[in-house]
Amino acid sequence: MGPGINLISTVIAFVMSATFIVFVCTRIICGRIRRSRFQTQSGIDLEQPEEQIRGLEPVVVAAMPTLKFNSEEFNSIEDTQCSICLGEYQEKEVLRIMPNCGHNFHLSCIDLWLRKQSTCPVCRLPLHDISEAKQMRAATFRTHSHQTSPDHSRQ
Q1: Are 102 and 70 spatial neighbours (Cβ–Cβ below 8 Å)?
Q2: Mean pLDDT score of the chain
Q3: CB atoms < 10 A from the CB of 94, how many?
Q4: Could you tell me what percentage of the chain is helix, strand and coil, using 3-state DSSP and rounding each to the nearest 5?
């Protein structure tokens, strides 16, 4: 009975090992497929060439308000972590505040996001309105200053 039990134990161990290897490989392959589908469905591919990107100009992003994090001033636990990287804010860390909705993020996280996207990552409020309004104001100011200059009035 000894050699038969050894053979059965060996076969069972081999089958369990093979099943485990197949399980692990399947998980890895399915995870890669899911990630690639998510990237194509969401339209967020941080590896896109720059010409396809519809984010905000760096000047517009830099003009958005910032705030130093202070745990005493933030009310809820949800406000104490970045919604992009899910990392906790550290004391006196600089955060960028979205102008329309007030959501806040790590400076580096949101700046990368806004190079690729033009909406708030949490509520999807469009931020193009801000940049377009500033550009319109700047264009109006340039047009107005050219019309009132002495060189244009003589021609």
Answers
A1: no
A2: 76
A3: 12
A4: 55, 10, 35
DSSP string, 66-112: EEE--TTT--SGGGGB-TTT-PBPPTT-EEEE-TTT--EEEHHHHHH
Contact yes or no for 119/126 (Cβ under 8 A) = yes
- Nearest residue to 108 (alpha-carbon basis) of 128, 129, 124, 90: 90
pLDDT value at residue 42: 52
The per-residue pLDDT for range 6-60, each reduced to its tens digit, is: 899 999 999 999 999 999 988 888 877 777 665 555 555 555 554 455 788 888 8
Question: How many Cα atoms are found within 13 Å in the side-chain-facing hemisphere of 85?
Answer: 13
End-to-end Cα, the chain, rounded Å:
113
Tokens representing residue 29 in the block? 């392959």
pLDDT higher at 73 or 136: 73
Adjacent-strand bridge partners of 126: 119
Cα 15 versus chain centre, distance: 44
Region of residue 102 (left: phi > 0; alpha: psi -120 to 50; beta: else): left
